[in-house]
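Reply to dn_fold:

You asked what the input looked like. This is it:
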Amino acid sequence: MTDPRGPLWRKNNNDHTCHWPGCDERVPARLWGCKRHWFTLPPRIREKIVKHYRRGQERSRDPSPEYIAAAKEAREWCLKHINGAENDSHN
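and this is what came back:
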């Protein structure tokens, strides 16, 4: 049976929630986040995450310092984006 979420999804014990703050969607460990939030990130940040991802780092639990820096940049961008959206909604 094909999973409706697409070919990248494979159920295993290494899945996690999307890294977008507050998102509870489960994704495979090799992915940063859910499709919606991945494509909300600016392309330059997505490119850094992809560039510095090492295949299998989710199993070996040893991402490169560059990957960690890219993930931190993504989180900081998310928080600014969320806070900006919340501030805009109060006007």
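The mean pLDDT is 84.
Hope that clears it up.
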